[in-house]
Structure formats: C-alpha cells, structure tokens
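Recap slide: histidine kinase, sequence and predicted structure.
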Amino acid sequence: MNKEKQTVKRRIFISNTRMVLVTLSLFLFVNMFVINLYEFKYKNSTISSSKLADNTEQIRNILTDWNPSPKEEAINNLATKLNRYGFSLGVEIDSEVVYSNTDFPVSKLINYIGDDLETDGKVHVYVQDYMTVLTLNNMNEKMNVFAIAGEYHEFLFPKNGLTTILILLLIDVIFCIGALIIISQIFTKRLIEYITNPLDVLSEGAKRMKEGNFSEPVKYKGDIEFEYVCDAFNEMQEHITKANADKESYEKARVEMVAGISHDLRTPLTAIRGTIKGLKDGVATTPESREKFLDTAYRRTIEMDRLLERLFYFSKLETGNMPLFFEKTEWSEYLEAYVKRYELLIENESIKIKIKDVKKGLFSNVDREQMKRILDNILENSKKYAETDKLEITINIFEEHAYAVLEISDNGCGVSEDKIPHIFEQFFRSDESRNIKEGNGLGLYIVKYLVDAMGGSVDAENSNGLTIRIRLPILDE
C-alpha cells in the first residue's frame, strides 16, 4: 500500500516537472533569439563606454606630484588644476565628503567602488559606463581624492535598448513561472494533500525525534489507517521519552554515586592508613597510645560501614527494591517512644531533644521503620551541621487542613537561603568544600524519597536554626 502511494506521488512529481521543463525550454528558446538580435549593439555600446577620457595621463601626473593636504587652499588649488583638463574633484576625509565641484554624487561613486578602492597611496584608474575616475588614498590624513571625467548615469548601460529588453524578459520569466505554478497547484493540490499530508506529518515527527525533540506529538486527523499509524508513532515517542529520562536519571545517579563514594571513603581510609602507619613506625610507644590509635581506626571503620550501608540503601531506593509496609500510627505515641530510644543513644552527648505540644489523636498511614530512618537522618543532619555547642532539637506535630505536619527544628546556624531549595537533592551538602564536615549528602535525599513514597511532602526553612517540615495525610481514626 505504501509503495503504491509513493508511486502516485512520484508520477505527479514527474508530470509537473515535465510541464515546467517544456514550458521553460520554449520560453528560453524564444528569448535567446531576442538576445542574439541585440548582442552586436550591446558589445558596441560596451566598447564605446569603456574608453579612457582625454588627458587621463596628465591628471595621473598631477595627483602623483600633489602633496595630500586637508587644507581648503590646497584642495582648491588641486581643483583648479584638474578643471583645466576637464576633470572634476571630490574629496573624502574620515568617510565624509568634504569637497565636490561636480553635480555627480561622490558618495554614490565611493559606495560603487567599495572594496575595489586601493589604499596603497598610489594613483589608480577606474573606467566604467562612460566615466573615468582616478583615485588617490592617503592613510595619514585618512583622505580619498577622486578625479572624475565623463557622464554619470543612474543605471548601468542606460539609454540602451538592451536594458528594456532584459527587464521585459525578466517580467516574462516571472509571469510564466508564476502562471505555471498556479495552474499546477490548482489541479494537483487536493490529490497531493490527500496522499502526502500524513506522510509529511510522520516525516516531520521523525525529523524532530532525530534532532532530540520527543515532546511534540504527531497530530493528524483524516483517514483511519493513517490515524492508527500516527497514534502508534506517538506511543513509540512517549516510550522513547520515558526510556531516555530513566536512562539519564540512572546515569546521573550512578556518576554522582561513584564520585560520592570515592570522596567520602577517602577520609576514613586516609585516617586508617595513617593510624596503621603510625603503629608500624613505632609512634605509639605505650599501651595507652596504641589503644588510642586503634580506637581511632575502629571509629573510622564504623564510619565506612555506615556510609556503605547508606549507599546500599540508596541503591535499593533507586532500583525500586525498597518495599513499604504501611501501618496506622498515632503520632504522639510514636514520637514519644522514638525520642526515648534516641536519648539512650546520645546520653553522653550535649544534645537535648524535646517534644513540644504534640496534639494527640492524629493518625497517619506510614511505614514505622522507614519513619524512624527519616527522623534519624534529620537528627543526624542537625548534629553535623548545626555548629552549636549545646544542640537543642524540638519536635512538634500539629494538624493543618487534611495533613499532619511534623516539624523538626534545631538551634543551629541554619542554611544559606540560596541553598535551601537544594538540600534534598542527592549528594548535596551545604558546605562549599566536602572536606569541611563528614557526610555523603544522601541523608535528606532519602528523607524526601521516603516522604514522597508515603504520599507526603517535605520542605525546609530558616527559623532561629533549620526547620524541616514534613506533611503526611491524616488518617481518620
């Protein structure tokens, strides 16, 4: 079917091409005959219009011997000398005509010569259309001097019958071609549109896809067969768009993960290597110092283990292998139990956690284990970046419209306003250098991922420290 339609299109094209070629061949044959009639006259006119004016050599000598000067007196004297031999004078300084003793428009002459104007300081002769022009350029004075003899004509080869013939021929060409195109369009437009419109639409769609534009669908309404083809094309385009987006997202996450691992593992590895080197070199000479070195190395291995665990967790999130188990949860009871457990872990640290006016009777459907991970990551972020000797963390939950709003605030230094929109991005850290504080930039990214998966949202703001606000849908009791 497609092959037959392509054959019809080709037949239409060949028919129109023949019509154009035959018409143009006849037209050119007639016009070539007309041109031959005037060829001899044209040549004679050209020869007679290209002769040098009398006294050209004397003018060349005058200009060669003249000392270029922008002074009015010098220019007037030169004009007087040229006038004796039937030449007019035009002077241009700094691209402005400052003297002309002829009705001839010197500015048009300058534009006409254009790039052909020599600037080597010598006298040059130009012959064109019954005119002889001698030019002299002086770079020091930024001066161009023109000695002009002959008649000026607005058009090339004026008063020549050939001009009229050429204009008529041009009009004839335009008229014939226009008439031919119009007639051809009248008889073939509907047939061509019927056959080629859907093909052109698909062709443009394929061209856009080749150029990387997958957002614009193919739009066609007409024959049902072509509609099916166009719909299938759009489905294919949507599938490719989604596949490309997934691929780009995966590649970006993979590259950033490798970069993050290579950096964040370097610090503890360097510390462990230094500790072992110190022990080998005998730097630790007492049991106490050796014990201190080993404790340092052990803490660093714990850091590496936490990092690898978090990266493994991140990998499970990215591959969609992290199932969520939702349970009906009462917030006041859950938060009180969480704070009690967490306080046991930080009893030797100068951190104070308090729950502020938690409203009782608020329920949400959440994964309790992943909610614990969310809170752990937020509190760990405050411990690392609050930059305060006595860290205070306040947890509050209240009802807002149909959502339970969980606020976790610290009394730290907060985050610069231009970086707040980015703190939930993967591998983002607010410090200018990754070496300022330990961390991998995954904690808050995991928070956002899990909150989104639970049907909520998360944002942050500075309010006497950093406040992270989580909104989760309220579940009727």
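DSSP finds eleven helices and twelve strands in the chain.
The chain has four domains: 2-49+160-200, 56-150, 265-322, 325-473.
(End of recap.)
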